[in-house]
Fold this protein.
Amino acid sequence: MLDNPRSPRVRAVTKLARKAARSETGLFLLEGPQSVAEALQFRPELVMELYVTPTALERHPAIAHAAEEAEVDIDFVTEQVLDAMADTVTPQGFIAVCRQFPTSIKDILSADPRLVVILEEVRDPGNAGTIIRTADAAGADAVILTGRSVDLYNPKVVRSTTGSIFHIPVAVDLELEAVRARLMEAGLQILAADVSGDDLLAARTQGVLAAPTAWLFGNEARGLTDEQLAVADRVIQVPLYGHAESINLAMAASVCLYESAFAHRG
């Protein structure tokens, strides 16, 4: 059992909370039983190391079985060691070190996608992770994070996806103009979500959402710039019928993605 919180092995895992270490090693940190279970079920080849407290494994015997099936070794650690490794204040007994696995836009487009998400300058890790999770739930085909958005492998992003990072292809570090050109070639319209746009209900009524679509979402604080909006074929806003000043970016993305999902299945 690994019991020294100051050991080189523990420190190497702890460093993965920093982007420099993730970039250097090509690895990232995965925390919690749900995320670990999703990794073992959907992408077990990515799990390089798995650290578990004995108490946590007793509570989640299915993960022990999944690790055995995937031929992933389990390293038992003390609570103190897990606390030292974790990015969260109250870790749940499971930490995995995984290999990064970004998807290329070429691979995304080769699958003839009908619903894609583009995140441009989305900086909040919780928003980015939640949108990836929502995209997965709504049946989207892929997510694209431009180079000005938060790092996909930031621990808070990974946690917020609740395992969806292993379900849906995600491309990273692309320029918006290059993405636009490739999507146009593939026959997808780009709809930008912004308060300056046309009413979402009107777009739905006009049949706009039934076409293959890439939704473009911008920065949480200032939205999309005029230059970024110019990339889109049409700008759409989520209407506010009550007295709220605005809604959260991830919530707006959820509405837009599900409207497209309903239109594609209608």
Summary: DSSP finds 13 helices and ten strands in the chain. The chain has two domains: 8-99, 105-265. The first helix runs from residue 8 to 14. The mean pLDDT is 96.
